[in-house]
Amino acid sequence: MKKYLLLSVKQQYTEQILQGRKTIELRKSKPSVSSGDVIIIYCTSPVKAIVGTATIEDVITHTPSEMWELHSQKLGITKRAFFEYYENSDKAIGIVMSHVATLPEQIQLSSIKQRIPTFSPPQTYRYFMKFVPAVKFKGFTLEPFRDGVLAR
Length: 152
Description:
The chain is α+β, with helices and mostly antiparallel strands.
């Protein structure tokens, strides 16, 4: 079954992802996803909206030094900021993305909360069973896992 991984991403990195300059999203913990699963890109404050999607190609794990040496051109972050982020970590997780698509219309946090009152953007990521943005209307489908197994 395909999974949908909602990622909270800062605005500066969201823009780079949508422009194709950042193809690896960095994390400190490894999500339970597979190639072909979908990333739902939630842009944090001040935008506070779902702005796009991407396909997960792979999830890679290296030491921070190896990640920087092998993939620095795909990370969309300065060397200083990268090593500050991983300062107390012995592993760096990278979610390799492809088929990035900007939504025709952003889905604002207020709209999500109207449909799912308990929704709050995740600190890092959260799993969903289904995500379908409506192209012609301002609607969308966003279904969380009901059993909580993959809730995060």
